[in-house]
Please model this.
Amino acid sequence: MKKIILAVAAFAALSGSAFAQQASQAYVGAGIGQGHVNTDCTGVSDCKNNDTGYKLYGGYKFTPNIAAEVSYFDFGKAKASGGGATAEMRGTGVGVGVAFLGDFAPQWSGVARVGIASNRMKLSTTPNVGLDGSESSTNAYFGLGVGYEVTKGLKLTADVDFSRGKFQGEKGDLRLVTVGLNYGF
Model:
């Protein structure tokens, strides 16, 4: 994990200094869609791993094809119930990374993202059985997306983002599929 963090930081620093003379562009975006928090539902009568999730992000293009980004992810929650008890596991994260951007047709573009995220997993139970709590962990994340330019500077986007979370030693996959808007200025 330390090697990934160092590689992303080195790449972002080199990109910023090597391309500082070129035109740059900032952008912001938001998306909403379906989040997935992978949890073990063994022995539970009712289990749902998908929920509404969203993301907010901002970036700065150092070249037309490379940007640094900061993101906030809400992966939604998983909910399990049975025997009069309910448990909810929510996944959120804050990430920094590099976005590789490219146009592949008039008005159409693509993006690949890679970075690190501090993901937080929070467990809530009803009635409280003493397991409630939260735990943060640092994990890699990556994502893919497409964009359609509606007007100059405004894109309609569709993205999928992946990461992992950890709670009490158990690891689980986090996924977020969104549609949204991206505005460059």
